[in-house]
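Technical appendix A lists one of the benchmark inputs used to test multi-chain prediction within the project. The record comprises two sequence entries:
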Amino acid sequence: MIKRVAMLLVVVVLAFGGLISCAGPAEETTYKVGAIVSQTGPYSALGLPALEGAELIVKGINEAGGINGVPLELIVYDDKGSSTETALAAKKLIEVDKVLALFCSSATGLAHSLVPVANEGKTPGIPMSGTGLIHDQLGEWAFKPISAEEDYIPLPLNYLSQDVGVSKLAGMMENSGYGEGGEFYLVQCAPDCGIDVVEIQHFDPAATDMTPQLTNIKNSDAEAMFVWGSGPAGALAIKQAREMGMSVHIVTTPAQASPSYVEAFQEFYEMEPSAVCLDSKLTMWRQLPDDDPDKAMCREFDELYTGIYGHPPSMWNAIGAQIVQFIADGLERAQPDPSNLEEARAEVRDAFETTENLSLFMGTYTLSPTDHYGRVIPKEVLVTFEGGEKVLVKW
Amino acid sequence: MDFSSVLQFLISGVTLGCIYAALGLGLFVVYGVTRVLNLAQGEFVMLGGMITVSLNSMGAPLFASIVLAVTITALSGAILYRFIIYPARNSAGSTLAFLTAGFAFAIEGLTLLVWGWEFRSLTNFLGSPNIHLWGATIFGQAPWVVGVTLLMVVGLYLFFGYTVKGKALRACADEPLGAKTVGISTEKMALFSFVLAAGLGAVAGATITPLTMTAYNVGIPLTIKGLLAAFVGGINRAEGVILGGMVLGLAEAMSAGLMSSGYHDVLALGVLLVVFLCRPRGLLGAPERA
């Protein structure tokens, strides 16, 4: 009899213990944000700095107590330079990790894979895309507070027509989504800037010899050349053009201003007329006039980044940083409750759509339900190269 | 289309062709002896360039840097054979090819870890200046690339044709059982072929870096181009590989020059596809012995 009671007691105690342990430790609420970046693959040069910038902002937010007191949690996946991997990572972030919002910051072509997945998964997604071609495909759930060609192409074109005084332009376009967008908008924007596009050549992003294309440009009556690339080929094109004795004016997209190329090919970048590249206020803040409204913001980020990494930040650090800043601003206004995921995501989307005059590194943004791009003030600058230094030319 | 433009396209084509031919030769050396398709050949080329740049930027004179880079890369070729290919030597050829591909990815990842993603460059050997000829430009490093490739071709021809070791290597390729019967160690010959291919690849890599720059991820595209060159020309014969490389390089350059649209890569590869369909063993491919 006693034995039976004792056994029953043991079973009850064990069962109780089992039930208590099932409850598990109380989970801390965080705002989960998904990040898909190229940590490996051909675009890691853009992805890794973007991640650095993003992580820096997340750290700063959490050290200051989080958003509305809730810590921000960044969940990072590597897209390995593949659109398929990007889409898969996006699905995983939405369905398994249950993020409130996600972004992809590697290259334009990869980031576009995010758009359909975000719309299908009804989760706000930010593709780091610099092209306007995607604007009418963003749907309800994709936002791109970054840049678009229509805003920044006029800067170098006006520089050529007004400051330099030339009008005949050749396009040296990369064979990629990035180059495709560039070509479309170059042709569209040129007439309004007093530029006549007389020749267009294409090159592979991994090309090592562009003399055939450059020869064709040389033979045309182009007075200037717009090198539109995101990889080493663009920098090689500048070097090879100068080595071939071409003295056309050269303007380029931001990737060609990357320190590793400028250092390696300094002689060619500085050869008269020195190359002029698109860049950002963040890298050139020291040369901005003191009354520039963005100078303080850029200096702050520069000092923060340099303090940790020992070298100044690049435009790609700024892009990663500003995506997180945009998301954080939306989360702050939405105050979503992550336990009700569907509603929370909708609230975040609504908050993104009501972003107003948000000043970030690449621009100032005011979005709306019909405008998921919203850049009202572009902040690109033009730089050239002299004596081993970058010099601000126009902004 | 004026003369100097066509000349420029030809110069570009010949330079590219020599790069691809050099890659194809490395593939030929390994395939010819072991019947293994070494998909890591491009990594040897990449390592040759990266290590040379590293040593040179640390202060070592250029020639010493190249010699050291070639030695280190040749060692990696030995590692590939001894620790990856040799243990699996009884596997099917496709398995061995996959193993070399795995090795290639591993090298790429290691390189990214050690050196980072940045592209690196070298100045032209001996500071060779550009040559301007009839309105076209020959980049200073281009003669070096052509010269090194020619040296490789001549060197391999003499080696395989007139030295005992070279003939032993050919014996392994033509008749492995017979070779063993006369006392040739097929394993030692296989090791040697990997080391040779790695060394040649490294020399090519160091030589092309002033022209093309180098980075952790240039290996695989180079391997693919080398494979195309080898298959189009016929991987069984060195002459085939060289011809394949030149055809590929010229097709690329001419289509880039003559077509302003973005389809010139498609056209170049299309031409190669036609070659394949007409002559499946490659332009100079010999039928394989039983």
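The interface with chain B takes residues 40-42, 44-45, 48, 173, 175, 179, 199-204, 206, 208-213, 215-216, 219, 232, 235-236, 240, 243-245, 260-261, 264-265 of chain A (CB under 8 Å). Chain A has a mean pLDDT of 91. Comparable benchmark entries are summarised in Table A2.
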